[in-house]
Design goal:
heterotetramer, A alpha+beta, B mainly alpha, C alpha/beta, D alpha/beta, A: alpha+beta, three-stranded antiparallel beta sheet, D: Rossmann fold, 2 domains, four-stranded parallel beta sheet, 4 strands
Chain lengths: ~400, ~375, ~160, ~220
């Protein structure tokens, strides 16, 4: 591939060797020791593969059905988001975050908006915070519904996918009423919300919750109680708490490993401190625990929304003057929140102008993918698919 | 049936139509009959596969709260025709580094195996292409050929995913063939014949699934599981497990050759369901209950062909139901299920069946009238 | 532990730490030499126990001619966080690898190498993470020039 | 089918009734092809959720058009739906995927990123500005991401295109991409012209050679 590009600073650090993918594959290659030994082979899983959830590429070293080594190759949707962020203003950053982890677009918006608000020391009223919390929790349910469906599909059962999407569409319709978009909302802005909510919003949310609570039991009947599911998940892909912390895993992946670390509890933002909810925690950290933790999280999210939906405070939904230029004083600001997949962090380096000097997204899937590598070695190919799915990878979030 | 004929396969249609030794007396008529029979079988096969594909898509859609094909004809009834025409006119890619001969041979082998298996299936007392006296043996021998096609297809494609799928399929089909044969043997023991028509006639007084209650049911259950595994359907669709192996053994096949694999898959479903209906559910024998003679007479009014079709459809529906409900097993769990669970149970079941036959002790020997 | 206590504990841990200004959370600057040992101290200290490396990234301060490595550490037990910075020479940025301290650092360092060109010593597998192996240059440097990249024609 | 193809089409046409025969066969083939568009399971980012998943799911149901048989192997797929951003690194893979598909094959580019680079058209060092730079595109469906309904409109547009085509006499003939969700008759070229005019008006600082650059993108594989 010939791409015209240059650097001003040509590097001459020859003393630190730089490897390449080919060298890495050669590193793991070894010839069979004897005639009886099995021959190991390399196979590409992805970039176009149904269960890598996008364009993740894993170079697998296999021994028959057993996965011996995994070499992940990232960057198939690396869009240069952090570079682009240096050219656009703070308001425009919000729409970039939509395209990070598009399944929790609202939570991503919130992190970005909150980072700007904290840097500018803007106080928000209760209405904005309550609405943001409700939207975030609805989005968490929506994201987990999609995960549940895709999880079923990756294990070979196609029907959960359609059941999950059937209910996901209901939340999508609620979002669409207020925001006019189905997936990339660009709704939570620095200083408040883009527009006020749809007048029917509280009623529709209540209707949905009433509908969805029995549906969760239906999910359990269809999938959770299935003996094949138990066999495929229990004891597979064990991630112990210490490794999970060391790789910086977060979200349900970390909590399934027995570490009760949830930013909604430990560092409450929004109105989470005013609500009652449990943080589901697993014990062994296998695929089954991750499954159960996510299913429980949906129930807890329903609880949170139920507590908030009845008394949304009155007030304006935007405290800043809309369209006003945002200038953030010089400094480094870091803000993190709990999205459906884990901790999403935004590091802003401001230099006092309208554009950030540097913007870094700390994305949950980046760390969670690393945990897959340590989990799946020595297991079967089908287990790798189950693990990848139980960790719930969104590839554009890793590549940025 | 003329027992004097030295050919093993005695076509009922052939010998009944022509009488005597067809090949020496009227060779042109015999040849025409064979040609016509082949054409009819292939036509029947394609039609069955199309109907099954359409049914599968519609049934799956309704399981999943959607509509399925709607735009091509009334409720999408011409969907399968459009699909097969499209596959017929699609480019046939043979990748450069494949073994061209084997690559071309594999789908043909698959279809041939299913075709040979299909001709033994009697559809009603009057419609059967080859009603041979070793029908069961022939069918289990011929259906084993299909795995050869899958293995060849996977190996010759020169693709690692294909190879993995083919190896999985080989291990799976050969293992589950044992259980399937064991469960079939139970019925063969009871009926005392390997001829399908005799097996069906032996169930005039009660179907084998409940005539010998526990043994028959266990055999049927093992047959159901192992036949699902034989024909590579969920939860045993490891050979083409889409989320693991992209498309499994037929990853590198396109156009008509892929269509042949597709065809073989659905005909296999039909064969397995027919086999289940013949062996355990009494084939074309009507449903009778003890001494309710009015009810039994009513049941007798339904033609035998319809009875057979109803039973086959029921089993096919069951198979589709299973497919759209269950997730997929892992390859080692699949093997464990066969060698550690199904095979011992099947063996014990066969032994019990043999003891029952020796003691001539059947639970429900009904004499309706 | 509040902000000042945390900062004083960290500063008392080693004389090589110096406080860093203009951040929203407690921040220190550390020398590049011996960064691994300092980080190990922070991780294993009983009152700090920074066992999670949440963020590892870099900032290209082109005017000062420096590249600053930024590490944000979080303790999963005490839930407090600390920012550690280290300044490198921009022309020849070499830093010790922290992959022996936190497993995830291996990937984060590969990303920093990819986008900023920081070379890591003792790294188990130093190659580009997001871009092709034969990519020319390091895109997140401020002076990165790429003919392919389009400037927006209006403001 | 090898019997009737573009080589012997003129011969058949010479017979009496030949053109009518060819037209009839064309109609049948086109009907079959347009009603059986099996998509490849391929999605790079956000659009895949809306276009591949939500469109195929219960509420919208791609199956109504006979297009729900998603094939994971490109050999068996007819339709490549480009859902999401295409970056430089993905380029060779995408071209391989396209080459692996069997003729006749169709491409629908959905979403701003696959059409033009979308939000990443400027100041991105890795995003390809439109998938048409890599592979021929038949229909483009605008949106960020497009709704499933918009994708259905794109699919119907493609079906119409296939039915109007002459699959025997001119197989594999490609037209300019058709923009779904706009009045018929508007081509991608017109849109581009307008876009460039628009850019010229709004341009404040940069001279116009930037746009010239945009027209002759120089990145090869």
């Amino acid at each position: 591939m010939e791409i015209t590009g240059m650097t001003a600073a040509t590097m001459s650090n020859t003393e630190v060797p730089v490897s390449s993918l080919d060298e890495r594959i050669k590193f793991f290659q070894n010839e069979p020791q004897s005639a009886l030994a099995t021959q190991e082979y390399f196979v590409n899983m992805g970039p176009q593969h149904p269960s890598t959830h996008g364009v993740l590429r894993l170079v697998l070293k296999m021994d028959g059905e057993t996965v011996r080594e995994i070499i992940p190759v990232l960057g198939y949707v690396h869009r240069g988001m952090e570079k682009k962020a240096e050219y656009i203003g703070y308001r425009q950053q919000v729409h970039l975050t939509d395209r990070l982890d598009y399944l929790c677009a609202l939570m991503n918006n919130w992190v970005m908006a909150d980072a700007v608000e904290r840097a500018m020391k803007i106080e928000l009223n209760d209405r904005i915070l309550t609405l943001r919390t409700i939207f975030a929790e609805l989005q968490r349910i929506q994201s987990h519904q999609l995960w549940w469906g895709v999880f079923g599909m990756d294990l070979g059962a196609f029907t959960p996918f359609l059941y999950g999407f059937r209910d996901r569409e209901k939340i999508t319709a609620i979002f669409e009423d207020t925001m006019g978009a189905r997936l990339t909302m660009n709704y939570i802005q620095p200083g408040g919300l883009m527009y006020d909510i749809h007048p029917e919003f509280p009623r529709k949310v209540k209707d949905f919750l009433k509908y969805f609570k029995p549906i969760l039991n239906e999910y359990d009947e269809l999938f959770t109680g299935n003996v094949i599911v138990h066999q495929r998940l229990k004891g597979i892909g064990i991630l112990d708490g210490k490794t999970a912390i060391s790789v910086g895993a977060s979200g349900p992946v970390l909590r399934a490993s027995g570490v009760s670390y949830d930013l909604r509890k430990s560092d409450p933002y929004g109105v989470y401190s005013k609500t009652q909810f449990e943080v589901p925690v697993g014990t062994t950290g296998d695929c089954w625990d991750r499954y159960i933790v996510r299913m429980q999280e949906m129930r807890e999210s329903i609880r949170i929304v139920e507590q908030l939906i009845d008394n949304i405070p009155e007030g304006p939904t935007m405290v800043m003057k809309f369209g006003a230029k945002i200038r953030i004083p010089e400094g480094i600001y870091y803000n993190q929140m709990e999205t459906a997949r884990g901790i999403l962090g935004v590091m802003l380096v401001a230099d006092g102008t309208e554009k950030p000097y540097r913007l870094h997204f700390r994305t949950p899937n980046f760390n969670n993918l690393w945990s897959v590598i340590s989990m799946a070695k020595g297991l079967r190919l089908a287990d790798l698919v189950a693990i990848l799915s139980s960790v719930d990878i969104v590839v554009p979030d890793i590549d940025r | 049936m003329s027992s004097g004929s030295n050919s093993l396969i005695q076509g009922v249609s052939l010998s009944q139509w022509v009488g005597g030794n067809a090949w020496t007396d009227t060779p042109w008529l015999a040849f025409a009959a064979v040609l016509g029979g082949t054409a009819l079988t292939i036509g029947f096969m394609s039609l069955t596969a199309m109907v099954l594909v359409y049914a599968e898509r519609k049934i799956a859609a309704h399981f999943q709260c959607r509509l399925g094909p709607m735009r091509v004809g009334w409720h999408g009834i011409l969907q399968s025709i459009a699909d097969s025409l499209k596959l017929f006119f699609k480019e046939d890619i043979v990748p450069t580094n494949t073994d061209h001969l084997l690559h071309a041979l594999a789908p043909a082998l698959c279809v041939m195996a299913t075709l040979l298996a299909l001709i033994t299936i009697p559809l009603s007392p009057s419609i059967s292409i080859a009603n041979m006296n070793i029908g069961v043996l022939f069918l289990s021998a011929v259906s084993g050929l299909g795995v050869l096609g899958i293995l060849l297809g996977g190996w010759s494609s020169n693709n690692k995913w294909s190879l993995l799928g083919a190896m999985r399929a080989g291990a799976q089909i050969i293992s589950y063939e044992i259980s399937m044969t064991l469960s079939i043997l139970v019925v063969v023991l009871f009926a005392g014949s390997m001829k399908f028509s005799t097996i069906i006639e032996s169930q005039a007084t009660g179907w084998w699934i409940w005539r010998v209650p526990v043994v028959g049911f266990v055999a049927f259950f093992i047959f159901l599981i192992s036949s699902t595994a034989e024909i590579n359907r969920t939860p045993f669709d490891l050979a083409e497990g889409e989320s693991e192996l992209t498309a499994g053994f037929h990853t590198e096949y396109s156009g008509l050759r892929f269509a042949m694999f597709f065809l073989a898959e659905y005909i296999n479903l039909f064969i397995a369901s027919s086999l289940g209906a013949i062996l355990f559910l009494g084939g074309w024998m009507p449903f009778h209950i003890g001494h309710f003679s009015t009810f039994n007479h009513l049941m007798d009014l339904i033609p035998p062909g319809i009875w057979f079709a109803m039973k086959v459809c029921g089993l096919i529906f069951l198979s589709m139901w299973i497919r759209w409900t269950f997730p997929r097993l892992r390859v080692d769990q699949l093997m464990r299920l066969e060698w550690k669970i199904l095979l011992p149970i099947g063996l014990v079941n066969l032994a019990i069946a043999a003891c029952l036959i020796l003691s001539e002790y059947y639970f429900f020997v009904w004499n309706p009238l | 532990m509040n902000r000042t206590e945390l900062l004083s504990t960290v500063l008392s841990l080693s004389t090589e730490f110096s406080p860093r200004e203009k951040t929203d959370r407690p921040a220190v600057l550390a020398p590049v030499q011996g960064l691994t040992d300092l980080m190990l101290k922070l991780r294993d200290h009983s009152e700090l126990s920074f066992d999670m490396l949440t963020v590892a990234t870099a900032i290209d301060w082109i005017k000062e001619g420096k590249i600053e490595l930024v590490y944000i550490l979080i303790s999963s037990t005490f839930k407090h966080s600390l920012q550690v910075g280290a300044l490198l020479d921009r022309e020849k940025p070499v830093a010790p690898s922290l992959s022996s301290v936190w497993a995830i650092a291996e990937w984060q360092e590969r990303e920093i190498f990819d986008l900023f060109g920081v070379r890591y010593l003792n790294h188990p597998d130093l190659r580009r993470l997001l871009l092709e192996d034969d990519w020319n240059g390091h895109p997140l440097r401020k002076d990165y020039v790429d003919d392919f990249m389009l400037e927006r024609p209006w403001r | 089918m090898g019997l009737i193809n573009s080589q012997n089409a003129p011969m058949i046409e010479a017979f009496p009734g030949g053109p009518a025969f060819l037209t009839t066969i064309d109609t049948v083939i086109n009907w079959a092809r347009s009603n059986s568009l099996w998509p490849l399971t391929f999605g790079t980012s956000c659009c895949a959720i809306e276009v591949m998943m939500a469109a195929g799911a219960a509420n919208h149901d791609l199956a109504r058009f006979g297009a729900e048989v998603a094939r994971a192997s490109p050999r068996q797929a007819d339709l490549l739906v480009l859902a999401g951003t295409i970056v430089k690194r993905m380029g060779p893979t995408l071209q391989t995927l396209y080459a692996q598909m069997a003729e006749p094959k169709y491409v629908i580019a959905t979403g701003a990123c696959a059409i033009s680079g979308g939000p990443f058209i400027y100041q991105s060092y890795s995003t390809v500005r439109g998938a048409h730079e890599l592979i021929p595109v038949d229909v483009i469906v605008p949106g960020c991401p497009p709704r499933p309904e918009a994708f259905f409109y794109g699919l119907l547009t493609l079906q119409k295109m296939i039915r109007e085509g002459e699959s025997i006499r001119r197989p594999g003939e490609r037209r300019k991409p058709v923009l779904a969700a706009l009045p018929p008759g508007i081509t991608i070229d017109q849109i581009r012209q307008e876009l460039i005019l628009n850019l010229e008006e709004k341009s404040v600082t940069k001279p116009l050679n930037e746009h010239a650059k945009m027209e002759n993108l120089t990145w090869k594989i």
